[in-house]
Design brief:
With 181 residues, this protein is an alpha/beta fold. The chain contains three helices and ten strands. Helix 1 crosses helix 2. The longest helix has 17 residues. It binds inosinic acid and magnesium ion. The site of inosinic acid has 15 residues, from strand 6 and helix 3.
């Protein structure tokens, strides 16, 4: 338990656990033998996971191109609105590329389904998905991720890039805010 800005945070996945899992995921991704891989980090929540995972991909022998797309489905609330929109788009040509989308959490699946469909519409040869956390109990679409860091219990988690009302992204671990403000 850590007390951060007067909130109690229970550590769910610590830094060492996350680092080990990233190396394992990168090993799995490398085994699929992707040529000309275009990695697209779905911002903002995935920025730390993506930064660590691409360095694990390097260790696993891959040299991906790295892009960023900012999608929004939440506003400032903690409930998905179901309305996904592109806040800031990628710059690269997607047609004919093997795309790996990286996101922090797969929950309803609306965000990543939107991103996957967008890349397929733009002519990607393949689109695979890597997520750090999978909240399987909350799925509202039939999307699955090829690469999953951890199954996540149905709590609102923060840290390692993920926020609640724009706070706690900087934490080097994934945790659960255990008390109300
Ligand atoms: P989905 O569209 O319902 O799958 O929601 C996925 C997105 O919601 C993720 O990319 C996160 O940004 C956000 N999200 C879902 N659950 C959490 C959480 O527990 N903490 C922080 N962000 C979350
Ligand atoms: Mg997100």
């Amino acid at each position: 338990m850590a007390l951060i800005r007067n909130r109690n945070i229970n550590v769910l996945f610590d830094a060492e656990t996350l680092a080990e899992r990233n190396d394992a995921l990168a090993g799995q991704i490398a085994q699929h033998g992707h040529e000309d891989l275009l990695v697209i980090a779905v911002l903002k929540g995935s920025f730390i996971f993506a930064a660590d995972l691409v360095r694990s991909l390097y260790k696993a022998g891959l040299s991906p191109e790295i892009e960023f797309i900012t999608l929004s489905s939440y506003g400032a609330d903690t409930k998905s609105s179901g309305n996904v929109r592109v806040v800031r788009d990628i710059e690269s040509e997607v047609s004919g590329r093997n795309v790996l989308l990286i996101d922090d959490i797969l929950e309803s699946g609306r965000t990543i389904s939107f991103a996957k469909n967008l890349m397929l519409e733009r002519g990607a040869s393949s689109v695979e998905i890597a997520v750090l956390l999978d909240k399987t109990g909350k799925r509202a679409t039939n999307i699955t991720a090829e690469y999953v860091g951890f199954e996540c219990p149905d709590y609102f988690v923060v840290g390692y890039g993920m926020d609640v009302a724009h706070a706690f992204r900087e934490l080097p671990f994934v945790g659960i805010v255990s008390d109300e403000e």
